[in-house]
Design a protein that fits this description.
Strands 1, 2, 3, 4, 5, 8, 9, 10 and 11 form a nine-stranded antiparallel β-sheet that branches. Strands 6-7 form a two-stranded antiparallel sheet. The protein is globular and about 65 Å long. A hairpin with a 2-residue loop joins strand 1 and strand 2. It is built from one helix and eleven strands. The protein starts with 5 loop residues before the first strand and ends in a 31-residue tail after the last strand. By secondary structure, it is mostly beta strands.
């Protein structure tokens, strides 16, 4: 088996969730979010071992929310307010942050990760919220130091149950199948992809 490591991430995009209920799942337009430098993914997990006849016999597991931490470049005030549900002053474009008036909008978020052997994985997290990002500002000096943002996205399962697999947190599809066939994923980010849209992607010509 060929060995590879993760090296590369790109094309961070998002779309607002318009509808997510028993009758369907709909999103708004897919839009560019920011330049992407790094992605970290963690999943809440718990387990408990049950003992019978003085031996460990059963392991019960639970899986919770997923947290994706995106290291990105600068966000404009309008985009930051849209992602985090904060108010914007219509006359000046100033963020009116904190306190009353903060909503909790849900979004889908997509991006591409890559390995050292060139295999790219195209991903969509289907439902989650963004936290106000951590920000660090330092004085200018004679060097070239600068700071980026850490944008945290907490993903949860959709309310809508897809025909392919039921409720989902995310979908991820490699552009190279096990037999070496390349998939044509040129339309992956034209809309939010779900478990029920995967059959539309065919091998490249």
């Amino acid at each position: 088996m060929a060995r590879a490591e993760y090296r590369g991430c790109e094309n961070l995009v998002f779309a607002s969730i318009i509808k997510d209920d028993e009758t369907g799942y709909e999103t708004g337009e897919v839009k560019e979010l920011a330049g992407l430098a790094e992605v970290g993914v963690t999943t809440e997990q718990s387990s408990e071992t049950k003992y019978y006849d003085n031996n460990p016999a059963i392991v019960l597991k639970g899986v919770g929310a997923e947290t994706r931490t995106f290291t990105i470049d600068h966000l404009t005030n309008s985009l930051l307010a849209e992602l985090t549900g904060q108010m914007i002053d219509e006359n000046t474009g100033a963020i009116l942050g904190g306190g009353d008036g903060v909503t909790n909008p849900y979004f889908a978020v997509g991006y591409i990760s890559e390995t050292t052997d060139g295999v790219k994985t195209y991903k969509w997290a289907l439902k989650g919220t963004f936290q106000v990002p951590d920000e660090t500002n330092t004085t200018k000096n004679a060097g070239t130091d600068s700071n980026n943002l850490s944008l945290v996205y907490t993903g949860i399962a959709t309310t809508h149950k897809f025909e392919n697999g039921g409720r989902k947190v995310y979908v991820a599809l490699e552009d190279t199948k096990a037999d070496g066939t390349k998939l044509d994923l040129s339309t992956w980010f034209e809309k939010v992809q779900t478990p029920d849209t995967l059959s539309t992607f065919a091998p490249s010509a």
